[in-house]
Amino acid sequence: MRITLGARLDYVTLVAGVTLLAAALGGCARGAGDEDAGGGGGMDAGPMLRIDASACATPCGAGTVCYGGNCVAACEPDGTCGGGRTCCGTACLNLTNSFDDCGACGRSCFGRANVCTMGECMCGTNPACADGTICCDGDCTDLDTDAMNCGMCNNACAAGQVCEGGACVGMPCDPACQGDATCEMGACRCGAGPDCTGGETCCGAGCVDTSSDTSNCGRCGMACGAGEVCMGGTCTTDVPCTPACAAGETCVAGTCMCGSTPACGAARACCGGSCVDTTRDVGNCGACGRTCSGSEQCCASNCVNTQTNDNHCGGCGRSCGDTADGCTAGSCTCGGGSECLLPPCLLGMCIIL
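Now predict its structure.
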């Protein structure tokens, strides 16, 4: 039978009450032990009672009564006893060492002490235990928390267990495990490995960053919806783009877009929802919306007249060079005539050196 701490004090009171009643009736409702011989001490508080409802093994003779399973001297008719004993009910008891009548009739040491010495309940060599503790092997302890005496004296918890509320349980983890990590022998573990570190959380059997993981956003199993990303542990579509999007592009869930396509990239610009090469596009030459005239082309982001420009004569990048001194109607010329074939054009003439 296991007696919890919350009920022990009431239980001791009940024992004392039953003891006095039994003594008054001359019954034999005491526990084993010879109070007159200095017995009754030496029994630790535990699950057993000192009260024994059975009668003495043999009938008691004249002048004696059955008390605690033993025949002891009976009180005189006037309620007195000899030999320094005290009349408790009908029995003469030595209150200096009687475990169940220590210092006074019915004053039991049960639970809070293991011996009665000089009329005082003692736990070993120390005074009786305070409320909420029990005497086990001469030491006061709390059966709700003592792993060596958990729930009852000498009930030791197994290795890796602690005593909580008088029951042996697995050693808790402090701080408590996060996510899906489990507590084993006081240590958190993620799956078959150690617990996660570096701000990550154990989800399933792996470590993830719940501040940015779209499948475990903020906590394990919290998946973001379509088009959402996880930022700071929250699913959202309002995500800034880093670096910032170029002119004409829009930021969609952290991604720069040009219309319905991804960002344009180097040497191209997003103009009207489409990516164009502004170095050659006559409608967006050098910048979106900058349109070259009908006689111009877009060469290296500049609108030029390829009919007259000797650096872009007849087309972008076509330079007339030393064999001509001008560009006429999109053709290189020397002095207004044909371009020199090999010799340089000097003073408007092809000079043979």
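Confidence is low (pLDDT under 50) at residues 1-54.
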